[in-house]
Amino acid sequence: MPAELSPIDKAKFAAARRAVDFVENGMKVGLGTGSTAAWMVRCLGERVREEGLRITGVPTSSRTADLARQVGIPVIGLDEAKWLDLTIDGADEFDGELNLIKGGGGALLQEKIVATASDRMIVISDASKEVVNLGAFPLPVEVVPFGWQTTRALIEEMLISVDVLGRQTTLRLSGSQPYITDEGNHIVDLHLNRIANPRQLAMALNQIPGVVENGLFIDICDMVIIGGPDGAVELRDINEGTVTQERIDFAEDGNIFADID
Ligand SMILES: O=C[C@H](O)[C@H](O)[C@H](O)COP(=O)(O)O
Question: Which of 111, 142, 213, 234 is catalytic?
């Protein structure tokens, strides 16, 4: 591993490197989006190229589809795959029940559909994303462009009735224009600070006309792998109730970094 990688990238890499060990020949694998998931795609690409691992990837964004093709992973769409063995993705926050906030990179809709259509979801993360209560990270909500201001007002009205610490909302921008998701929608970020009941909030949001999906992933994640900059990894399996400590040997992974700009 090159010395110039930041400690946070080393931590993300360690988690990603461990997660791809769960991928086996013949699997259909959901490929998440974001900087942590990008490490996973690179690690998986290396297994495809070096070991001849035979898998099919289902990307959760156009960015991930481009990267997967670049590193040699065959990709298909979800409707062709129908059902997946495993999805590996990053997250913006996770709590003790492995409930998540996702969508910081704008890919929450495809990510939630793909993860839900998978036998198993593994989240890869560095330690900074673990929280007691979800909500410090702004909760992304994908809304259709038609009438988005009305939808935002309805969201704000609904927030009065739920137990959160903040209620400010912002339209996500790309430069001076509204951010556009892969599905052609906008994102409203909810600055809630602390969400007392994520399950209730997720359901309330999705009942609002104009809301396509929200970034709360409840009961979807099966395992989180937390990486450290020294190669330490912790695997928490919510179904088995197990916590396992291991270590990744960075020295074995030189090839992956040859591809990185
Ligand atoms: O929309 C983006 C995704 O939900 C990402 O997985 C999430 O934002 C985490 O991204 P990163 O690994 O870059 O922190």
Answer: 111
- Please tell me the pTM assigned to this model: 0.96
Q: Report pLDDT digits (tens) over 207-235.
A: 999 999 999 999 999 999 999 999 999 99
CA separation, residue 40 to residues 37, 211, 250 (Å) = 5, 30, 14
What is the 8-class DSSP label of residue 51?
Answer: H
CA distances from 170 to 29, 99, 142, 149, 167 (A): 33, 23, 12, 11, 10
Residue range 38-77, pLDDT digits in tens: 999 999 999 999 999 999 999 999 999 999 999 999 999 9
Which domains are present in the chain?
7-130+219-257 (3.40.50.1360), 139-211 (3.30.70.260)
* Amino acid present at 214: N
CA of 106 relative to ligand 1 center, distance in Å: 8
Q: Whose CA is nearest to atom 8 of ligand 1?
A: 104
Does the annotation flag 33 for ligand binding?
yes
* 52 among annotated binding-site residues: no
Catalytic-residue membership of 111: yes
Pocket of ligand 1, beta carbon within 6 A: 32-37, 89-92, 102-108, 111
Question: What is the predicted ipTM?
Answer: 0.99
What is the CA(36)–ligand 1 centre distance, in A?
7
Instruction: Say if residue 95 carries a ligand binding annotation.
Output: no
CA–CA separation, 231 and 260 (whole Å)? 19
